Amino acid sequence: MRFMIMHRTNAQTEAGAMPSPEFIARVGQMMGDLVKTGVLRGGDGLRPSSEGVRLQFAGGRRTVTRGPFGGAKAVPAGFAVLRVTSLDEAIGWVSRFAALIGDVDIDIRPVTEMWDLGVAPKPEGLTTTRYMAVHCHDEAGGDAPPAPELMAAMGGLIEEMTRAGVLLATEGMQPSAKGARIVSTGGKHKVTDGPFAEAKELIGGYVIVDVPSLDDAKDIALRYADVMGDITMDIRALS
């Protein structure tokens, strides 16, 4: 099974503070270990919300809130990674997605690249930016499967975005009842199985791992927490 382990932001990362070289090295070592064991399927960090936007769609109307902003009032239900020339272009594509599914909140933030961290040069001539769009869902409303017409329309939009070179990845998340939350403070870890409510903090970054069970994902997340320090992490099964 594939699981997404998401760590939350803190005041330092939301302020745009750069991680120390030692911290970057520790995270790099952990990622390298996951590669060696063959379980890593992806991972990225996200830039502060001050560089992003929150889109809220309700009753056919769109509200655009430029960052900074806090945590959403619902749990993440899925995400897409786009490569586009601007935040406004990302907003355009995401708005087309929202037009299909109805009332929804979607956060769009830039992905942290190696050159943002100062550990690699930015490729010469690169004019596009990767953005991660995370849409949220109020699980109290149930988890009914989408109608066949919606699935067909979504498939058509995904195909169009893929052909245009815009869509790099898209994933849906299973309900939080099939996940877990880990809160680490002072080297001590509290593990709570789902379901759970929204977190007060935004997603700061994530890794996707392919392991046999939720318990295996928890083991990796606890190693992740030892590297990250005081942190809140959610583990969610991917669809």
Automatic annotation (TrEMBL):
Any Pfam family: YCII
InterPro entries documented for this protein: Dimeric_a/b-barrel, YCII
Indicate the segments forming the YCII-related domain, all copies: 1-96, 142-221
Quick one: signal sequence residues?
none
PANTHER family, from UniProt?
BLL7171 PROTEIN-RELATED
Family indicated by similarity: Belongs to the YciI family.
The entry's protein name is YCII-related domain-containing protein
Q: Which organism is it from?
A: Sorangium cellulosum (strain So ce56) (Polyangium cellulosum (strain So ce56))
